[in-house]
Every structure is written in structure tokens, then in C-alpha cells.
Amino acid sequence: MLRTLARQAARAGAQAARGFAAEAGPPPAAKKGGSALPLFIGLAGAGGGLYYAKENGYLDSLLGMPPNPSTGGKGEFKPDYDAVRKVVEELLESNEDYDDGSYGPVLVRLAWHTSGTYDKNTNTGGSNGATMRFLPESAWGANAGLGDARDLLEPVKQKFPWISYSDLWTLAGATAVEAMGGPHVPWRPGRSDYALDQFVANPDGRLPDGDKDAKHVRDIFYRMGFNDQEIVALSGAHTLGRCHADRSGFVGPWTNAPTTFSNLYFQELTENKWRKKKWNGPLQYEDKSGQLMMLNTDMALLWDKKFKPYVMQYAKDEEAFFKDFAAAFSKLMELGVPFPEGSVAATPAPQK
User: Is the pLDDT of residue 314 over 90?
Assistant: First the structure.
């Protein structure tokens, strides 16, 4: 109930004023070009060598998977994923200087980008393996800025060493959606982390490029196995966050409530008049205030005759959008994952 009221208040404020606060810079660690994680590991008594080994996947067999419950003892080990969710929720607004005061959008983007590399034709890519830990994937232009999200979750991994990075990253994304007022996203564990000697790099170019057209959008999403309705639903994640000139080259938020999950993205897309932004950056569109933006791939959803009906539906019906987004985002995070037979969601929908 509280999340619903918060979402309604955020939407009302966003629709009342088209202006928006100036873009905040990256967190202090990112400004310095480094990370506080080596210090964190050192204080924990692990040392630089352990940190290096962990980052390169050498310790995944020890830390990446839950302990064997058949080792005897008085009780059977049971992973507490709800405890992980709670710690992630506590981190979401832990740094008011980060973007719009929430890490939620960047955690959703991490889950999206670690999963969106899947290719159904070769059964490669996807969230299994947590391959964004390694070069060249960690340095792809599409993944710029996601080091912030990975660094944020590193202490969570240390607190719960039995969870794999690939499970942690996707669970954090699902948690962030719900914590920001969105739908419950079904999630289940079972992903494992590849070690460095198991890693085979995926080719760059598997993630969407914002200045492209509808054909490009379909090529990217059809390769993963999505249909047009699912493509539009997943695009609704742009209701969160903002673009950064020093990451994607684009700049600005899609809505005036970028830390609230809602259907505002579709309302802005359909109700505003958009014009090409006159600047030295890549092609993007702006509203009359110059504060909100849309990418060419966003406009393509409105211009394409097959995409547009879903855009119009979601602009009018938030409940339908929430339902379809939850299903599509859950599917995205499971692409290519060899789940054990009979596995079920570890985070069931909350009781109403």
C-alpha cells in the first residue's frame, strides 16, 4: 500500500512539472577512477591476492555456489534469499549523491545487460556465468557505468558468499523493480559463475544501440526469443533512470520520476511532442522543456505500426504493463540458464 501511494505521489509530481533537477555526477569512488573494494577486502583480512583471485573467477567453486547440504552436521543449510533481498533494499538509497538518489535504476540495468547477451541460435550468453566480470564484456560501451552496480553489490557477495554473482545480480534487479514501486518479478536461483578458464567471450553488439531503428530493435530482441509485445513491455524499463553523456553518449531522464517504477514512460512517449535535440551528441529527442529525452529506439516503438498498439495500451493501463513487464523481465533473466529440474521461484509473490 505504501509503495502504491508513493508511486502515485511521484507520478502526480512528475506530471505537474516538466522541469527536472540537474544531473548528479557519479559516486565519489567513480570520480576518482578507482574503487574502495580492495580496501574493503583488505580490512576483511582477505588481502589483495584473494581479491584478485575472486575477481578473476578462481574462487567461484568455493564462494559461488551454496555449500553442500549433505555434509552432515546438526542442520541442513538453506540459502536465505529473502535476507539477500533485504540487504539490497537497504543499499538502494544509501548514497543521496548518486544520480537521482537511488541505485535502483542501475541495478535493473545490470540485471538487464548481464541477461540480454543471450542468443537462442547458439545458446550462448545470458546471465549464467556472470561473464561481465571479465574483459572484454566489462568494457563494452553498452556496459559503461555498470562497474558502479557491481561494486555496490560486492559487500553483499561477501556477506552471503554462498550466492553466485549471476544469481545476486539478477536478484538485485528484481528486488529493485519491486522496491521502486513496480510489480513483483518472479525469480529463482540456479545460476553458476564461470571461472576465468571457462569463460568464452561473447561478441560485442548483442545489446541495443539507442540511435538505431525498429529493425535493429527486433534483430536484438528476436535473437533472444522475444515477440513484439514483450519488446515493448521490456522497453518500459526506461521509466527508470537517466542517460549519461560520459557513458552512453546520450543525456537526460525519460520521466520526471526516474526512481519510481510506473507507466510514465509510455505516457510521456505518447502525450509529449518530441523534437530532435540540437547538440553535438548522438541523435536523441527532447520535449519542449528540454529536460526529458527519448532515444531513437524509443521513438521507433511509437512510429512502428506493430509496436504502437502496445505502447498505447501501456500508456493507458499500468496494471497491464506491470503484468507483462514482470513476465518478460523474469523470462529475460532466465534465458540460457540450466535450472535444476523442478526448481521453483525462491521469492514468491507477496500475499495480498
Answer: yes
